[in-house]
Amino acid sequence: MKRVRSSTGGATARWMFPNGHPHARFAPLLLVLTFVSGLVDAASFLGLDRVFVSNMTGNVVFLGFALSGVSELSALSSTVAVAGFLAGAVAGGAWRREAEPGGLFPLLVAAQVLGVALALTAEAAEWGRYAVLVPLACGMGLQNAVVHRLGLPDLATTVMTRTLTGLAADRPGPAAVRRGVSVAVLAAGALTGGLLHEAAGVRGVLILVLVLLLAVASVARRWR
Q1: Residue 65 · residue 51 · CB < 8 Å
Q2: How many CB atoms lie under 10 A from the CB of residue 177?
Q3: What mean pLDDT is predicted for residues 40-44?
Q4: Distance (Å, whole) CA 39 – CA 61
Q5: How far is 30 from 179, CA to CA, in rounded Å?
Q6: Which of 16, 21, 57, 111 sits in a 20 to 30 Å window from 76, CA-based?
Q7: What's the mean pLDDT when you consider all of the chain?
């Protein structure tokens, strides 16, 4: 079973990076994290006072809107989300800086599992939206920092502005495939999160996120 999983991951990596990359084996797992980003943003935007936990561009814009007096948006929520994201990114950037990025990946996912578990506990115990928002935003910041260190092009897992620009502006090729898949996976995650939120609320979305992260952690540990 372990051999089959490694072979599948290698085939996907070769398809997305035909010219090779030191961390290409993580490409399928980054796509799962991209799907997770869509899920958590759906949960946070629809269930946590119109705020994102991974799309910080949107939060900065929302902060400006809120400060201008838009009543549907909360300046405090946007500020807390940005602060939590930055704290996670700082931790991810400083965390074992001398370590090989591929070796950090399983630790990243383990930290995210703990963060989502904490957010799920806070949601179930009704500790308030900030107790749910902060660990999710910190986890997304940590994820972005470690993914940045991996350096896989077009697989940022969260922000798609540059990805869409490259998809439209550059010639077709392997990069276009990566970009198109990334955009589609993020959209699919947001769609799934929206539908699941309608049926089961924030708690239902976070349960799915936790299941997916546990699966990624299991595979990453074996590939390590």
Answers
A1: no
A2: 16
A3: 96
A4: 20
A5: 13
A6: 111
A7: 85
Q: Which two tokens stand for residue 212?
A: 């997916």
At residue 49, φ and ψ (nearest 5 deg) are 70, 45
Domain boundaries, the chain: 28-49+87-223
* Closest alpha carbon to 143 in 49, 209, 76, 59: 209
Q: Which residues contact 72 (CB under 8 A, 6 or more apart)?
A: 50
Hey, what are 3's tokens? 């051999």
> Rounded to whole angstroms, what are the CA distances from 81 to 16, 25, 72, 138, 174?
32, 31, 16, 8, 34
Is 205:116 a contact under the CB 8 Å cutoff? Answer: no
- Both tokens of 13, joined, read 């990596």
